[in-house]
Design goal:
79% helix, mainly alpha
Length: 154
C-alpha cells in the first residue's frame, strides 16, 4: 500500500467514525419524551414538597397519586420503542445525582413554607433543583449509553 492510499484510508475511517459518533448522539438525544416526563415528575414532586406543610396528608397522597397516570402514559407511549441495552460499564454518576436528589428533598422538607410567597418560592426552587438533578442524571446515563455503544461496536 502506498502512503497516499493509507492516508485516504485513514481519512475514510475517521469520517466513518465521526458519522457513527454523530448518529449515536442523535439517536440518544432524539428521545425527547423522556425529558418531558422528567419535567412532569419534577413539577409533581415540587408541588407535593411545597404544599406538604399546608394541606392534609390525604390531599398530599392524592396529589402524589398524579404520578400514576403519568407513569401509565409514559409506559404506553414508550412500549413500542426499541428497548435500550443495559449499560455494561457505566460511570454511575447518575447514582450520585440520585443521592444528591435525596439530600435535596431532605433539605426541602426542612423548609417550612406556610404563606403564599414562601410556598411559591419553595416550589420554584425545588422545581429547579429537581429538574437539574433529573436532567443531569439523564444526560450522564445517555453519555454512558453512547460510550458503551461505541465500545461494544468495535
Amino acid at each position: 500500500m502506498t502512503n497516499e492510499q493509507e492516508q485516504i484510508d485513514k481519512l475514510t475511517a475517521a469520517e466513518l467514525l465521526t458519522t457513527a459518533d454523530r448518529a449515536t448522539h442523535t439517536v440518544v438525544s432524539t428521545d425527547g419524551s423522556t425529558r418531558v416526563f422528567l419535567l412532569v415528575y419534577a413539577f409533581i414532586a415540587s408541588t407535593v414538597l411545597s404544599l406538604a406543610d399546608v394541606i392534609s396528608g390525604t390531599a398530599l397522597l392524592w396529589l402524589a397519586a398524579l404520578i400514576l397516570p403519568v407513569l401509565l402514559v409514559q409506559f404506553f407511549s414508550t412500549r413500542n420503542r426499541v428497548k435500550a441495552r443495559p449499560v455494561l460499564d457505566g460511570s454511575a454518576t447518575y447514582s450520585w445525582y440520585f443521592f444528591l436528589g435525596l439530600i435535596a428533598v431532605a433539605c426541602l422538607r426542612m423548609w417550612t413554607a406556610v404563606d403564599l410567597g414562601a410556598i411559591g418560592a419553595k416550589w420554584i426552587i425545588s422545581c429547579f433543583i429537581l429538574w437539574q438533578l433529573l436532567s443531569s442524571a439523564q444526560r450522564a446515563l445517555d453519555k454512558d449509553r453512547v460510550q458503551d455503544a461505541l465500545e461494544r461496536s468495535v
